[in-house]
Amino acid sequence: MAANKELAGKVALVTGAARNIGRAIAIALAEAGATVAVNARAATADAEAVAEEIRAAGGKAEVFMADIADGAAVNAMTADIIKRHGKIDILILNASIRKETAFIDMSFEEWRSLLSITLDGSFHCTKACLPSMIKAGGGSIVTLGGMTALSGSKKRVHGSVGKHGLWGMTRALAKELGEYKINVNCVAPGQMDTARAADRSERAPVSNVPMGRRSTPEEVAGIVRYLCTPAGTMISGQLIYVDGGQQMF
Question: What letter would DSSP give residue 204?
Fold first, then answer.
């Protein structure tokens, strides 16, 4: 693990941490000295592999399986984390479902299955972690957005709506929780160099990325890590793109 332990003594919950960006964030926070609760809904073996990778490098991590769309399961998970580690200082809302379906073919069940993770899950996790953060005198919440939140995307109406709602939640929470010394931000990855499901469409070309390549999970994780450190305390209510310059405002 890295020598700089700016998050030593902190406890972080990372949802959807079994693969890709979530995995990289869990590792980055552990490298900074945090004890990491690695959450996943069903990918137990992958989550255990992430925790073992962290422990093998000298960090601290445990797996906590739960479907974050289930409020009772989230409450039980956070209570277990606090029982084992005393508190939760950092919440990373990364879990999501990425599906592509034309709106005309989309069922309400599919619509709700995605929004239940992105929005309901974020509600449940934030509500469950807040008392511990307030008691500890502060904390950090980072949501994982996406370019489609503002730009929209064909066959991903539910994904665009979910991420846009998450951005709205981020801004509102930043205003409401600042008095408790809790900073809240949204990090939005651009085109990513990650594993994709077989039913996803082909990757977009990188010709519209000024930096000329896709972002890596580690680059996203680096920004998330910074926002959770003392140096990032005064950054709150912000939408930060890690996209090589695709989105400029």
Answer: P
Sheet holding 35-40, edge to edge: 60-65, 35-40, 11-14, 90-93, 139-144, 182-189, 239-242
CA distance 234 to 244: 24
Q: Residue 47 in contact with residue 17, Cβ under 8 Å?
A: yes
Six token digits for residue 62: 């445990």
What's the CA gap between 203 and 216, in Å, rounded? 14
Q: How far is CA 26 from the centre of its chain?
A: 10
User: Among 114-128, 194-208, 221-235, where is mean pLDDT lowest?
Assistant: 194-208
Domain annotation for the chain: domains and CATH numbers: 11-242 (3.40.50.720)
* One-letter-per-residue 3-state SS of 64-118: EECCCCCHHHHHHHHHHHHHHHCCCCEEEECCCCCCCCCHHHCCHHHHHHHHHHH
Would you state the structure tokens that stand for residue 33, as one six-digit string? 């000295």
Q: Are 68 and 58 in contact (CB under 8 A)?
A: no
Residue in this structure with the two tokens 């990090």, named with its chain if needed: 187
Q: ∠97-100-104 over CA atoms, to 5°? A: 120
pLDDT digits (tens, 9 = 90+) for 155-208: 889 989 999 999 999 999 999 999 999 999 999 998 867 654 444 445 567 767
* Single-letter amino acid, residue 93: L
- Give the Cα separation of 106 and 103 in Å (integer): 5
Q: Which of 46, 54, 58 is nearest to 26 (CA)?
A: 54
